[in-house]
Amino acid sequence: MFTPTTTADEVATTFAKEIQGKNVLITGTSMNGLGFETAQTIAKYANLVIITGHNTERLKLSTDALKREVPGANIRPLVLDLASLDAVRKAAAEVNAYPEHIDILINNAASPLCPFRLTVDGFEQQLATDHLGPFLFTALIVPKILAAQTSSYTPRVVYVSSGSHAWGSGVNLEELEHPNEATYTGMQAYTQAKSANILISQELTRRAGGRIHAYSLTPGAILTNFVQSESARDELLKHGIITEDGKPNLNAPFPWKTISQGAATILAAAFDPSLNEKPGCYLSHSVENNAAVAPHSSDPVMAGKLWELSERLVNAKFL
Description:
8-stranded mixed beta sheet; globular; alpha/beta; two-stranded parallel sheet
C-alpha cells in the first residue's frame, strides 16, 4: 500500500479514523523537522497534539505556526530538555497533571551530531538526549499512557531511530555509563543512540505484556534542521552524507526523502492498525521491515541489559 515516496498526508488520510480523537505527544517539534511535520499533519484530526522543545522561543514559533496552519487545532506546548534529567522530571510532572491520557507518545527529539560534550548529569550529549532522556520521560509518564488502554485500543510508543544504526557495532554499555572522549566520534555516538531506540522499543513491548505496543523506525535520509546543524557538518561531510556546500550528496548509497515522506513512516508506526499484530517491529518506508534491523539491535539479551542499566543511570524503575 505504501512506498518510499508516500507522504505524511497520504498516510494520515488512510488512517484518519485511527487519528480521530487521539491525544498525541511528540518530542522535538522545531520547524523544518520531522516532529513539526508530524504534528501539522495530524492536527486537523487529533483531539490534542502536545509538542515539545527545549528552546522556549522555537517552541512558541512552532505553536504559533501550527495554530495558523490548522485553525481550531488543539495544540499544547511543553518545555522539555531531554539533556537534563531534572528538566525531564519537571516536564513529566506537568504531563502527569494533565486531565487527559496519552494515546500515543512519539519519541522523535534527537541531538545533532556534535563534538564530545557532557550533559549536566555527566552523560554524553547524544546518548543522553536520544536515549536516556526519552527513557526517563517515557518511564515517568507511563501511567498516562497506560490510562489510554481500552478493550479495543492499545496505546503506542514510537521511537524515531535511523537506518544508520547498522553502521555501528551497537550500544556500548561501558561508554553509556562512563563516556570516553578518547574513543568518541560523533557518528559512533549517534549510531549507538539509534540502536538503543530499537532495543528499547522491543524491550518495552515485551515488558508491557500487551498493555503498550512500541515501534521503532527509520524515516530515511532527509534534509532537516538536524542535518543542517553546524555541529554536524564535519561528521556528515566525512561520511559523504552532504557535500561541501552543505547540500545532500545525491551520490550517497541511499535515496533522499522530503520531510513529508520521512514523517509518513512516523505516522504509520503511530496509527496503522495492522501493526497491532506486529508489536515491537521496525518500520521503513511506512511498512514493517524487521529484516533491516542489524543483529546487534535485535538481541533480546542486550535489550534487557540496556534497560536495566538505563533504569540505574536515570534512577527510575520503568514498568
